[in-house]
Amino acid sequence: MEVYGLTGGIGSGKSTVASVIEEYGIPVVSADELSRMVVMPGSKGLEEVVAAFGEGILGEDGHLDRAKLAEIVFSDEERRVELERILHPRIRSRFEEVLDALEKAGQRLVIYEVPLLFENNIQEILDGVIVVSARNDLRIARVGDRDGLSADETRARMAAQMDEATRQSLADYVLTNNGDRMDLRREVELLLQGYLKVELPKRRST
């Protein structure tokens, strides 16, 4: 089974790319979803995060308040590293469990969507990496619409991530997402056919 990474800076549209890829029957495993699973109430992961960051990061329902935690780690590099030390081994273990299940189900190709893929050297366990790229103004607008962050807040998060030139230089394939949904679908089809060698169903003539 081949496993390819999918990554990109905040607001680049990697989750949208992932959703289009899934429409073609290719499973996408989300690192964000795995990270939520390992800090569910009652888990050892959540217990360790609370011990490190305090009860203030919990919501009234006992779940992790990711927005509160993000405020802490995005402004303090040492706290971010501390959080990663707690979560990453658990995410990696859960990822391996999911891969094992997919392989047993007969899947030959899986996409792993990871925001900080290169920063955490995850490319070392993958068959290749796809980077989603977009103009900065579009990224800022998308994050504002999605998360309600100001342009300055988004720029601060962009600055905390790997710069775009370095990210693209490390990629095996760069997918540009500067257009609308139809433009993106065409880009995804080029990715699937050209790079991942997926045979797409023929379109019906009208």
Structure description:
The protein has 2 domains: 1-27 and 108-201, Rossmann fold; 31-106, Rossmann fold. The protein has helices at 14-23, 31-37, 44-53, 66-73, 77-104, 136-147, 151-160, 164-170, 181-195; strands spanning 2-8, 28-30, 109-113, 128-133, 173-176. Helix 3 runs antiparallel to helix 5. It starts with a strand and ends in an 11-residue tail after the last helix. The chain is of the alpha/beta class. The protein contains 9 helices and 5 strands; from the N terminus they run βαβααααββαααβα. Strands 2-3-1-4-5 form a 5-stranded parallel beta sheet, sandwiched between helices.
Describe what is shown at a glance:
The chain has helices at residues 14-23, 31-37, 44-53, 66-73, 77-104, 136-147, 151-160, 164-170, 181-195; strands at 2-8, 28-30, 109-113, 128-133, 173-176. With 206 residues, it is α/β, with parallel strands linked by helices. It folds into two domains: 1-27 and 108-201, Rossmann fold (3-Layer(aba) Sandwich), CATH 3.40.50; 31-106, Rossmann fold (3-Layer(aba) Sandwich).
Short descriptors:
206 residues; globular; Rossmann fold; alpha/beta; 2 domains; 5-stranded parallel β-sheet
Mean pLDDT: 92
The number of strands is 5
Number of domains: 2
State the low-pLDDT regions, or none: none
Determine the number of helices (DSSP H or I, runs of at least 4 residues).
Answer: 9
SSE class: alpha/beta
Helix content: 40-55%
Q: Name the CATH superfamily classification of the largest domain.
A: P-loop containing nucleotide triphosphate hydrolases
Provide the CATH topology of the largest domain: Rossmann fold
Q: What is the H/E string?
A: EHEHHHHEEHHHEH
Beta fraction of the residues? 5-15%
Strand order of the largest sheet: 2-3-1-4-5
- Major sheet summary line: 5 strands, parallel
